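Hello,

I think I submitted the nicotinamide-adenine-dinucleotide job twice by accident. Can you confirm which output corresponds to this input? Input:
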Amino acid sequence: MPKGIFSIPPIDNDPIKSYAPGTPERESLQATYDKMWNEQLDIPMFINGKEVRTGNTQRVMPPHDHQHNVGHYHLGTAEHVKEAIETALEARKEWASMSAQNRAAIFLKAAELIAGPYRDRINAATMINQSKTAFQTEIDAACELVDFLRFNVKYMFEIYADQPDSSEGIWNRLEYRPLEGFIFAISPFNFTAIAGNLPASAALMGNVVVWKPSFSQIYSAHVIMDVFREAGVPDGVINMVFTDPQETADIVFKHPYFAGVHFTGSTDVFKNIWKTIGNNINTYKSYPRIVGETGGKDFVWMYKESNPLAVATALTRGAFEFQGQKCSAASRAYIPGSRWEEVKGHLVEQLKTVKMGSPRDFSNFMTAVIHEGSFDKLAAYIDRAKKSDACEIVFGGNYDKSKGYFIEPTVILTSNPHYETMEEELFGPVLTIYVYQDEDWKASLELLDKTSIYALTGAIFSNDRYVVEYASKALENAAGNFYVNDKPTGAVVNQQPFGGARASGTNDKAGSKLNLLRWCSPRMVKETFVSPTDYTYPFMK
Ligand code: NAD
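Support: Only one job matched these inputs. Its output is below.
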């Protein structure tokens, strides 16, 4: 038990390094990238503090050079999932009663390790594994993960400090208990920071975790696990398995001590998870927490009174950074007719200068998409748009998978606001634009609001404050993260808590206190100092 009410060390956002020519960080990251590029990593699962190798290996290849090998990981079986669950439940006996300051110290140390000695390794791994440029990697694998780990500690103590009133002779206390069972963390390929945060946020609150990263992110997930181990996460508290997703889900969701799922990924997978949990509800000891941040069809809407260059820049960055594979990436835009030629001019000018290739070449703005499945799906969308009478390819439209999975930044202009690429999540460098008549701007907002099932991020551009007021109201439920005169990507922990509504997720706002509240179950303790000894009340006299 703590013998003090401790203040925590100062917590702030991790400063972003620039990697500009001549900086020491550029040289050091490039050296680490080259070293890792030429090594073969043997990546085990991690159960009960032990490395687990099965000999059934899958190779790890960078999406921008798919014939190159940087190692392999060991695939697990149903037995490993069962072992990870049992081991976690065993570890829970001690971890759930570990004092908050010791839990906090572990994750603060993990943040320091990533900010310092592991920074190059986790960044290089993310560049190689997920084909992110140095800057996109830095704001994800280093800064955002460090921010999650540090700010979560601050939020945890704020939650613990939130206590009810007491009256004379009575002391009311809220205990924020960990959930009774284990948490299943399922992470996506696209953000190393999310992969680290899904298991870490639950574990910080005293829970034990079975973590299944995406097969396309295992190489950088391995670095996260190394950090957790060095930071002192005890054996069995976070167990990482590389197992078939459906088979893993079948085992986890049938376990009586399944206490919650912390998911980030696509909407269909999440809906399926929710259904399975519902079907198994009689199996569980408690009602499981279901937290899922899922897909998006994120928009940029422009009013005639706004800056076309600023809109074009928001589209170039918002739609094409990290090849449009951010859940927040702009993928549909609504532009007023009178400004379209200007926006198009700026956009095409900017895209003509965009270079695409390996992230090792720092002059590249874009690299490859994550895997062949994604490449083929995107190519099919582009081919259909080329053939459609409702579409014109304004920029790009070419693709090539001979060396890596490269797709040009592609802009489609459509006359059909319900064309498939205006409605569906493509998750790639494809932006579709619909031009509306200036005078129909109110109707265009209604159209935007009703066009897709998603409501993750969105941006409006207007210099007219009445229009900002109107559009903000009209689009109140169209985005969980709403931007005025800015691109819809790049949320920062503790500044723009992140999450969407409608089919985009449960909106439990990663990077805020709201998320951590899902990983505890409060117990109210009322203590009476002098207990009554007479059962009667005065009114009875
Ligand atoms: P995905 O849904 O393909 O995979 C996510 C995870 O789910 C992976 O670990 C995968 O192995 C696992 N999975 C797949 N099938 C499963 C099943 N049947 N049961 C249990 N788990 C299963 O997503 P992805 O391609 O890795 O990531 C991209 C998606 O994630 C996009 O839809 C994107 O919008 C979304 N995303 C959302 C946010 C957000 O905050 N809203 C953030 C990042 C990514």
